[in-house]
Design brief:
It comes from Dongia soli. This protein is an alpha/beta fold. Helix content is 33%, strand content 21%. It starts with a helix and ends in an 18-residue tail after the last helix.
Length: 249
């Protein structure tokens, strides 16, 4: 019975995608999923432009750091910090995502930026919850700092960002999140090469020709791609990169 139910669910989802894939109307609902950091910093401005261009499309954003299933229609489009591995997905790379170590200016004072990450070993550090597994930035930090250096932990990257701004300690953050903020500065000048990731916009292959999906790829996908330099950590100071709305992207 379980196998039959699973088969019915799969076939129903496939039929739903096939029907949606033939929809040429620029109206209706579009379900999008994104991480909390991307949602809090960048995508809303691009969603506003998408709304102006396509007022008949209602965007429903699910902010979730998990990888939602596009095959089961948990979302129509995903903005993911990794190359998709499922064979039935369609997407394109938008940018490289750089990470760096940040802290409040009062905490770093004249000691930064450091050239060698080893200098951070005894600095007060903000990290993930102790039970966090498979997070590259967490593993990088754990191999670098001493056990007594941890002063704060959180399973939310946005909360780590706020804790770093409050001066609790240093945090490893995506450059697009931290670089535009004048209340943070880099503890190490260069991004961490081992933590470089990719930003992808992804949909199911059956939906790639849907009018709503194509429009989203063109407006939001191209808009995010135009900010490659910010994602790559090439604008380290506030005001040195174009604003989302001001640049008209």
């Amino acid at each position: 019975m379980a196998e039959a139910a699973e088969r019915i669910e799969t076939e129903t989802a496939s039929l739903g995608r096939e029907i949606a894939g033939r929809d040429h109307r620029l109206t209706g609902q579009l379900r999008v999923t994104s991480s909390d950091t991307l949602a809090s910093r960048l995508v809303t401005g691009h969603f506003a432009r998408f709304r102006q261009m396509h007022p008949g499309i209602v965007v429903e954003l699910t902010v979730d750091n998990r990888v939602l299933s596009l095959s089961r229609r948990e979302a129509d489009i995903a903005l993911r910090p990794a190359r998709p591995r499922e064979g039935d997905l369609f997407g394109r790379k938008l940018a490289d995502i750089a990470w760096a170590v940040y802290g409040a200016p009062a905490l770093l004072t004249s000691r930064s930026p450091f050239e060698n990450p080893a200098k951070l070993a005894d600095m007060p550090m903000i990290g993930w919850s102790a039970d966090a597994n498979g997070i590259p930035a967490s593993e990088w930090l754990a191999a670098l700092v001493t056990p007594t250096a941890w002063v704060y932990r959180s399973n939310s990257l946005v909360n780590q960002f706020m804790a770093a701004k409050a001066g609790i300690g240093l945090a490893v953050l995506p450059c697009y999140l931290a670089d535009p903020d004048s209340e943070l500065q880099r503890a190490i000048a260069a991004p961490i090469s081992e933590l470089m990731r990719e930003l992808w916009i992804v949909t199911h292959s059956d939906l790639r020709r849907t009018a709503r999906v194509r429009a989203f790829f063109d407006v939001v996908g191209d808009g995010l791609a135009s900010e490659r330099a910010l994602f790559a950590g090439e604008y380290p100071r506030l005001g040195s990169h174009p604003g989302v709305v001001a640049a008209g992207i």
